[in-house]
Amino acid sequence: MTELNNQLHHIIETINLAENQAGIKPNSVQLLAVSKTQSAEIIRQVAESGQRRFGENYLQEALVKMSSLADLSIEWHFIGPIQSNKTKDIAANFDWVQTVDRLKIAQRLNNQRPNNIGKLNICIQINIDNEVTKSGIAAADVFSLAEQISQLNNLQLRGLMIIPTNTDDPVQQQHSLNQAHKLFIELANLYPSVDTLSMGMSADMTTAIAEGSTMVRIGTALFGERR
């Protein structure tokens, strides 16, 4: 408990320092704790230390945790690849979906979202470096998909999510992050609901914040290496 609490506060301090260095208003960047493969008990410990947002990649694993943690006020984000046969449960149980990259999935989430729980918050996932092994829409197609999503009544378009190439080249890294931020600004100018650029993980969160991220997805730095 103490170690997790210390790790959480260290990450928050790192985010605050990065905000200050970037000249960003304090507390502008949200922390999403990536809790895939972590137990419900560990998530509870982190939540009781003040963390509210958690990201899950695997639907069935997440549903078990949600049941165990139903007494807590947790904001659940789905951040894994989406199969068509999983959209019903994702739409019914998550607050956010960050990995929408095609209209078919958006339509299914919209049609299967229960009317009594409010709109489902959506981020479009961009394959910013056009990697064949990664999910995500091409940057050139973002605005077309955004327009289509904006017409779906049970969805709320909130922004973009990217996973840039894992590289040691700071120039390439900065370029990818900067390109994503430019797209985000253009999108936000078109849609008032757009306020989230989900960008940056344990290894690059400081650089991502400097380049305009509003939400960092942190797993390893918080929970340690996955077993």
UniProtKB/TrEMBL annotation:
Keywords from the named record: Pyridoxal phosphate
Domain Alanine racemase N-terminal: 16-226
Example GO molecular function: pyridoxal phosphate binding
PANTHER family tied to this protein: PROLINE SYNTHETASE CO-TRANSCRIBED BACTERIAL HOMOLOG PROTEIN, PYRIDOXAL PHOSPHATE HOMEOSTASIS PROTEIN
Name of the protein described by the UniProt record: Alanine racemase N-terminal domain-containing protein
Source organism: marine sediment metagenome
